[in-house]
Specification:
- The structure is a single chain.
- By secondary structure, this protein is of the alpha+beta class.
- The protein folds into 2 domains: 1-46, Ribbon (Pemi-like Protein 1, Chain: D); 61-106.
- The chain is built from 4 helices and 2 strands, in the order H-E-E-H-H-H.
- Strands 1-2 form a two-stranded antiparallel sheet.
- It is elongated, with a radius of gyration of 19 Å.
């Protein structure tokens, strides 16, 4: 299927309805644009938390002696990441916060 769209003001366009329906995309879905080696752009749906429904709803507590040994601050954890991993964490947390502000659960 090929659909042509003009690029509007401020570089905006709409993903055509038939394509959104075929892909199952809805308002509020997160999409990414990734440049490919051949110069094309890959457009794909992303998920803020893939598999979140499988996570326990109650906190899992460590044994008391383990908890003392494994304590680490968020700052220490982030400082231990590479620059690329820090950038990815920032994007992930920013998108998660934005989705929460918009009332979107993913």
């Amino acid at each position: 299927m090929t659909v042509y769209k003009f690029l509007g003001k401020e570089g905006r366009t709409t993903i055509p309805y038939p394509i959104r329906m075929k892909l199952g995309w809805e308002k509020g879905d997160l999409i990414s644009f990734t440049e490919q080696p051949d110069g094309s752009i890959l457009l794909q749906q992303e998920f803020l938390c893939d598999g979140c429904e499988d996570l326990p709803t109650e906190p899992v507590l460590n044994e008391p002696e383990q908890a003392e040994e494994e304590k680490i601050t968020l700052e220490d954890a982030l400082d231990g990441l590479t620059e690329q991993e820090q950038r990815e964490a920032l994007v992930y947390l920013s998108m998660k916060w934005a989705a929460k502000q918009a009332g979107i659960r993913r």
